[in-house]
Amino acid sequence: MSVKKRHSDADGDTSTDLRFRKTPRAAVEPSGPLPRFQGSGADQTHGVHGSPLQRMRMRMRQAFTPSQPVFNPSMFAGRNEVLTALIRAIEDQRLHVVTYGERGIGKTSLMHILSRLAREARYVVRYASCGEETEFSDMFRAIVRDIPLLYHADFAPTSDASEEGRSLADLLPEGTFNVPQLTDVLAKISGTHVLLILDEFDRAHSPAFRRSIAELIKNLSDRSARVQLVIAGVAGNLTELIEHIPSIRRNIMGLQVPNMTQGEIEQLVHNAETVCGMKFTDEEIGFINLVSYGSPYIANLIGQHAGLNAIDRGDTVVAVKDIILAVHQAVEEIRHRVTAKSVHFVTEAETFVPSDTLGLLARSALYNGGRLDIARLEGLLRDLGGSEAFLRNLSEKTGLVGPIPYDPAGAYSFNEEGVPVYLWMRQMARWLDSASPNLQSLQRSISQCD
Q: For 44-81, how does the pLDDT look when each residue is reduced to its tens digit (9 = 90+)?
């Protein structure tokens, strides 16, 4: 057995092999204390009571909810006109409703608040979220399993079947069933009205499932059943349902969920202030309004980051610098949610498109349900060859955008839904870095590019 030559260094350390030389002690010691969770999994602060700032940090997660829908009506900002239209369509017109809009616009929050209001009015409400593999029989068996048999006209409340706690699911055949079989069961609901809410409808890719939903809407309407569907998803859903069965057009109402107004964004922030105790001045709320551009998701994201930044500084009042840092934090957070392919497309586009133009394209998409309308963009893109030629060129060279299939106006859209938010937030970060940090300078930067 051979023995490897020993080596020594200036500190006198020796080893039999350079590969196993000891690392100096200072190199492995942490530079400071590790970061800690500020609260417990039981939503309690560490210690007996916790400091006021610790308690404020805990409340911040209920105040701003960028990653979760709103369940509590006291935290639901605005949308009164949309809710009124929904309720009238359901209650007065007995219509089925398709609500649509971009992700982050608040559709799921709207569905949860609608569910609560309907339950208060003694509707039987069942909520289901669609997925890529959603099957008609599986979804609706689960839905009607939660509807007691006592609501079926053929069963009295005192019947054995009702008193045993059986449900409408017991009236369906085992295994798969078709739309007429489900309609026969739902058409005999009595003593109540049932609201079936199908959220995330755009995730259900099965053409057979979508055709079945369209057929169900027609059958329920034809038989004046006391059951209505409220569908939430992306903009194309209404058109696709009508394409399957054109005759259901008179039985449904399409309702786009619009961007929030400035007043609604202000209400969102004030609701959060009430919950967490953090103070946002009029200037900071103005910044959030400009940055969010009517998106409740962006408003919640910036508000949460800014509030936490203020707490990290030991303050209970948000400052402009907290908002600016929040925008940069949001850009980094959103960038990791965009695919590497789209990030590459953005880099390619920047070789022949001014960065401000990409940001303003994204802004237009965010405000118009994801659509890049040729007519609306003509002023912005006139110097780049006109909107139609520019969008076609951008599509062919990068794949960043593409024409919307069968769109009568020939509109385009970004090929990945997260890209507009990323581009717009990145543009806001650049403007904030280049201008003096005040509301007026930011407003001028935006208005000069409009």
A: 544 445 678 888 888 888 888 887 777 777 778 888 89
- Give the chain's count of helices (H) and strands (E): 19, 9
Same domain membership, residue 191 and residue 321: no
How does pLDDT run across 181-206, given as a tens digit for each residue? Answer: 999 999 999 989 999 999 988 888 88
Burial of 213 (0-12, 13-18, 19+ CB in 10 A): buried
413: left (phi over 0), alpha (psi -120 to 50) or beta: beta
CB atoms near residue 383 (< 10 Å): 10
Whether residues 232 and 160 share a domain: the answer is yes
Q: Measure the CA–CA gap between 242 and 257, rounded to whole angstroms.
A: 19
Is residue 349 a contact partner of residue 369, using CB atoms and an 8 Å limit? no
Residue 45 lies in a domain: no
**37, two tokens:** 């969770």
Based on the domain organization, do 328 and 357 belong to the same domain?
Answer: no
Q: What domain range is 374 assigned to?
A: 340-449
Q: Provide the residue type at 307 as one letter.
A: G
- Between strands 124-129 and 401-403, the pairing is unpaired
Whether residue 319 is found in the same domain as residue 431: no
Pairing type for strands 401-403 and 412-414 reads antiparallel
How much of the chain is helix, strand and coil, in % rounded to 5?
A: 55, 10, 35
Domain boundary residue, one of 237, 256, 275: 256
The pLDDT tens digits for 29-50 are 556 776 666 665 655 544 445 6
Question: Which token pair is 442?
Answer: 């930011």
Cα separation, 448 vs 450, whole angstroms = 6
CATH of the domain at 294: 1.10.8.60
DSSP string, 333-370: HHHTTS-HHHHHHHHHHTTTS-HHHHHHHHHHHHHTTT
User: Is the confidence at residue 2, as pLDDT, over 80?
Assistant: no
Q: State pLDDT tens for residues 257-286.
A: 888 999 999 999 999 999 888 999 999 999
Does the pLDDT value for residue 319 go beyond 70?
Answer: yes
261, 294 Cβ separation under 8 angstroms = yes
| Last residue in a domain, options 256, 280, 314 | 256
Count structural domains, the chain.
Answer: 3
Whole-number Å distance between alpha carbons of 255 and 232:
9
* pLDDT confidence bin for 10, thresholds 50/70/90: very low
Amino acid at 315: D
